[in-house]
Amino acid sequence: MKIVIIGAGFTGVQLAKRLINEKNDVILIDNEEETVRHASNRLDCTVLQADGNDLEVLEEAGIAKADALVTVTENDEINMITCSLVDAVYPHLLKIARVRNYAYYVNTNTAAKHHAETFAKNHRPLYGIDFMIHPDVEAGEAIVRAVEHGAVSDVVSFGEEEFELTTLQVTKGSKIDGIALKNIRTLTDCRFIVVYVETKTGASLPSGESILRAGDAVGVLAETKDVSRLIELFGTKVDQLKKIALVGAGRIGTIVADHLIEKSKSSFFKRLFGGSANNLAQNFVIVDSDEALCKAASERFPGAQIFRADITDETFVREEGLDKFNLVICATHNHELNMVVSAYLESLGVERTVALVAHSAFADIAHKLGVDVAVPLRDAVVDSIMSHLRGKSVTGIHTVAGGKFEIVECDLPSSSKFVGKTLKDIANPGEFLLLLIKKPGSANYELPGGDTALSAGDHLVLIEKAGNKKVLQKFSGIEL
């Protein structure tokens, strides 16, 4: 594929890196001289210093022969206008824009939903943007998914939350410590798949002979109803989260609070929070040092306690008893502060912490500091963009194990060489694992077995090494 990226900031560079690793033809454009010089020194692709919203510049860069345009500059209006400009001349080019203004994101999506019938009749999408990506929405939803399951690990959900991929730590002295994977099923009647294993020496797709040891991080796929039992099997106790503090009343904090209070009505949350759906509102604290944000939070969440305070002030923490809370979520836009505060509060006695961080490298640091769940904001954005660039058959991509592996959701076309083959016929240990399959017409996923036969139209979930396009090409039947 040939992809033109406008904006050579962190997200643009990280996106370009992943696309280059997959042997795509990438052209990166930015109008800042220093930014272009920095990107040129790091990337093996064409990097141009120019205005990306200039159609003449884009045509000289080869936009007419490109497959996709991705706009990730710091200016939402430039991202949107550039897509609109290109759409007027090249309507069949895939266009993706990152926006940070929540009003743009909400209003565009609302208009598209209200006029879905109109847009279904060969009408161009609003502003010519095929997919609009909002970083705060991606990060906020990732935080909520983690909290839904006790904030013990990062969580990726599939289907209507039928199955979940959870990263679990092997605890010293647990039943899992020292056992071979081929013997693990003797310890529980839960159906699950060990997807990957991270040790001190690196991450890998395991075999039956792999030995799990204390300190290893293990990706486990299981039905949602069985996740809590597996967490305990690995040596971690899931306690009821009776008291939650949210640090940060900005956009991401508001998204998290909205979701948590809404989800508190579900049966799962009632069990997690100990019964009444009102428990969350009664024991939900929001802390921010900004007066305007606190005032807005008080009006939006009347059932929560709102404090305008410095979360690093130990006197405040002790007086309000935050050190006795089950969970603290640090979701400010100061990512370094989120990590430090999370580690600090854990040292004071907080049971579990979730921290919003910049990217996966900081997530690794956060885990070493003792943070239970680190949500990398920029990785969530790049994952979302990558899923849209993989073609119509690919419906989702999630990086795991620090970006070493990708979980890919895709539909199996009739052109794939795997149609009619069983899983044991196509198995290639170490290269990929097929995790879930949903048959055409079925509403539910199922865990495949060796005799499971693949058919055209199957919706699949698989894991592969990041940057390895060969596996997806085999499944999709097309060159990527």
Fold and architecture overview:
The chain has 480 residues and is an alpha/beta fold. The protein is 35% helix and 23% strand. The protein has 18 helices and 21 strands. It has helices spanning 10-21, 33-42, 55-60, 76-89, 102-114, 116-120, 135-148, 227-233, 251-263, 267-272, 279-282, 291-300, 314-319, 335-348, 360-368, 377-389, 423-426, 469-476, and strands at residues 2-6, 25-30, 46-49, 68-71, 94-98, 131-133, 155-158, 163-169, 192-199, 202-204, 217-223, 244-247, 284-288, 305-308, 327-330, 352-357, 373-376, 394-400, 405-411, 432-438, 459-465. The strands form 4 sheets. The chain has a 6-stranded parallel β-sheet, sandwiched between helices. Strand 9 (192-199) and strand 10 form a beta hairpin. The chain is globular and about 60 Å long.
Key structural traits:
six-stranded parallel β-sheet, single chain, alpha/beta, 21 strands, 18 helices, 35% helix, 480 residues, 23% strand, globular
